[in-house]
Amino acid sequence: QVQLVESGGGLVQAGGSLRLSCTASGRPLNAFVMGWFRQAPGKEREFVGVTYWSGTRYADSLKGRLTISRDNAKNTAYLQINSLQAADTAVYYCAAATWSPFGSTVPVTTGEYMYWGQGTQVTVSS
């Protein structure tokens, strides 16, 4: 069992930046790929990005504004978002999945992730 706790959300002005953290407990973070998702009011939860053994992958619509990283020694993953826009207002979730790179693509859908954090609210004021 893995417990994930996000932090770092809040109110930020448009154009600003934010770094979200996701700290895992129960099992080492390096056993998982770590994904980030977000859900805006009235919308479905959408893929933001993922960090895995050999790299990262980002949602096409968000490329260039995101940096996802991980510090396995701290059991923590990070999501840095730059040039924030009102459309980025959402609850941001981190999630963990087990994954083998042999024969399948890196997980990008919610159903592929087995562990979820409680979410952290990001509100961007224009």
Architecture overview:
By secondary structure, this protein is mainly beta. The protein is 0% helix and 50% strand. The chain contains no helices and eleven strands. The chain has strands at residues 3-7, 10-13, 18-25, 33-39, 46-52, 55-58, 66-71, 76-81, 90-97, 115-116, 120-125. The strands form two sheets. Strands 2, 4, 5, 6, 9, 10 and 11 form a seven-stranded mixed β-sheet that branches. A four-stranded antiparallel β-sheet has the order 1-3-8-7, with no helix packed on it. The relative contact order is 0.31. The mean pLDDT is 95.
List keywords for this structure.
11 strands; 7-stranded mixed beta sheet; single chain; mainly beta; 0% helix; globular; 126 residues
Please specify the SSE layout and strand pairing.
Layout: E1 3-7, E2 10-13, E3 18-25, E4 33-39, E5 46-52, E6 55-58, E7 66-71, E8 76-81, E9 90-97, E10 115-116, E11 120-125
Parallel strand pairs: 2-11
Antiparallel strand pairs: 1-3, 3-8, 4-5, 4-9, 5-6, 7-8, 9-10, 9-11
Short description:
By secondary structure, the chain is an all-beta fold.
Quick one: overall form? globular
Number of helices, counting only DSSP H or I runs of 4 residues or more: 0
Helix fraction by DSSP (H/I, runs of at least 4): under 10%
Structural class: mainly beta
Radius of gyration: 14 Å
Largest sheet: 7 strands, mixed
Order of helices and strands: EEEEEEEEEEE
How many beta-strand runs?
Answer: 11
Q: How much is the average pLDDT?
A: 95
